[in-house]
Structure formats: C-alpha cells, structure tokens
Amino acid sequence: MSEFEYISVLLSILIGLGVTQLLSGLAKLLRDGRALGHAWWIFIIIATLLLADFQVWWVSFGWRDLPGWTFLGYIAFLVLPVILYLLAYLVLPADLHLDGDQLANAFIEKRKPFFALLMLIAPASFFQQWMLVGTILPDLDTGLRLLWIVLTIPGFASRRATVQAMIAVAFFVLLTLYITLLFMRMK
After folding, report:
1. Is-contact 90 156, C-beta < 8 A?
2. d(CA 166, CA 187)
3. Burial zone of 15 (CB within 10 Å; 0-12 exposed, 13-18 middle, 19+ buried)
4. Which of 52, 99, 170, 181 could form a disulfide with 34 if both were Cys (CB 3.0 to 4.6 A apart)?
5. Which domain holds residue 163?
6. Dihedral in degrees, nearest 10, Cα atoms 176, 180, 182, 186
C-alpha cells in the first residue's frame, strides 16, 4: 500500500459520510415529504454539495504523486471533505417530515453556520493548492474561488427564501463552471 493509498482512506470515509448524509436525506424527503415545491432550491443545494463531493474525490487523485507527506499536507488534504460533510449535515434538518415551507424555514434558520462553512471552501482550496504546488496563481480559477466567497455574503445575511433560491442556483452554476474549466485545463 502506497502512502497516498493509506492517507486517502480517511478522505474516502469523510466523502462517503457526506454523500450518505445527502442521499439518505434526499431519499427521506422524497419518500415522506409532503408538498416540497416551495423548497425546490434545497434540492439545488443538495445537488451542488453532491457535485462538490464528487469533484473533491476526483481532484484528490492529483495528490497521489506528492513526494513526502507531512502532517500539514495531510490536514490540507482533509479540510475540504470535512467542510463538505458538515455542510451536508446542516442542509437537512434532523426531522425530515416537513413540507416545503417548513424545510425552507428550517434551512433559513441555520443559514449562518451553513454559509460560514461554505465561505471556508475557497480558503481551504487555496490552502490545498499551496500545499500541492507551492503557489497560488492569479488566474480565472482563483477569481472563481473568490467569487465563491462573495456569494456567501447575501446567503448569510438574507432571511428571504427568494434570495436563498437565487444563491443556491448561483452556487450550482458557479461550481459547474469551475469544474468545466478545471477539466478543460487538465486535458
């Protein structure tokens, strides 16, 4: 077993827990939920978090050739999956026998810790980049991650469901654009 294989076990567990939390919550909502139409944007958040989990899993493979793992490098490797797991836990309340209005209100009530954690994704990804390649380049990728931080501010501040819905869609579009540009660059 290589160092990377050994070290990536905990990353796999964390991502697996986050995906399980999202998918089991989604399944409970679909099975037990009543009229969920008013909370459609919660499903966009779930999709965004799933996409982020898949992207972190995929990009983590880039760490396989890192020579000489350090504890700091290991922490950098694990920060994003930890944040994503916590976000998965926060997006869905413990009691999922809710209608759409209750589900939207439950999210809005806990939006501040959600968006505070969401804001940490960009600095965590900068930390990973710095640990992996030793530098942070001022490019489009950096700009998109800074835009990620900016988008968390209205989500953190607003209690309005329409604002939360717009932010949910914006994050999904931004993450999709980010992944598209990342994979175009990798070819």
Report:
1. no
2. 32
3. buried
4. 99
5. 3-186
6. 150
pLDDT at 143 over 90: no
Q: Do the Cβ atoms of 80 and 13 come closer than 8 Å? A: no
Number of separate domains in the chain:
1
Query: If we measure between CA atoms, which residue out of 96, 102, 54, 56 comes closest to residue 78?
Result: 56
Burial of 84: CB neighbours in 10 Å, binned 0-12, 13-18, 19+: buried
pLDDT digits (tens, 9 = 90+) for 6-17: 888 999 999 999
Non-local (6+) Cβ contacts of 81 within 8 A are 11, 14, 15, 18, 53, 56
* CA–CA separation, 49 and 54 (whole Å): 9
Distance CA 148, CA 154 (A): 11
User: What Å distances lie between residue 120 and 29, 57, 99, CA to CA?
Assistant: 28, 18, 30
Reply yes or no on whether the pLDDT at 105 is more than 80. yes
- Residues 30-89 have pLDDT tens digits of 887 677 888 899 999 999 999 999 999 988 887 788 777 888 888 988 999 999 999 999
